Amino acid sequence: MNNGVKNGIGILGGTFNPVHIGHLIVAQSAVETFDLSKVVFIPCAQPPHKGSSGLAAARHRLAMIEAAIEGDLRFEVSDMEIKRGGVSYAIDTVRELRQVHPESNVYFIIGSDTLPELHLWKDAYDLLKLCAFVTFARPGRNAGPPRPEDLHLDPPWPAELLKCYSSFRLVDISSSDIRYRMAEGMSIRYLVPPAVEMYIAEHRLYVK
Fold this sequence. Notes:
Oligomer: single chain
CATH class: Alpha Beta
Number of domains: 1
Number of strands: 6
């Protein structure tokens, strides 16, 4: 699928605690589906809608992303939210990225579980005007996109958001499961890139 995007930049944000194969597959799918020039991985300093318990230090999460995407020219990592500190809000990140790349269209990549929560994000309507959202279905969720009324947004935003909904290449991997497996002494091979597996072992992350 090629939507004719020129100079499109994707944002993939999150805790990345840790980054895993599922993140990379979603990023690759976004590049291919929406013809993006690149995807920028942006680990948050402090997530606005999650607790910080069990969150690895920012330097570790940043280093794991760098290890995971090394050599792939389609992907970059940015520490803008970490440098900004405090709670990381998408609206601040999109504004900063648009200042750095004023000539580019910005595409914010989210999972289908996040889509019904967009109306709760800080300055949601301003954010919707600054970037497009591309949504990828999460494994284990109900089949198909949500109903427009489930998004709790004024028209035309539900229809616009549902235009960029994709449900292929679903991979059932989660950072929470990886952390659990590490705590229980189980293998995380094939769930994260080998370089990330080595980094986690070297720094003894997520162990009891």
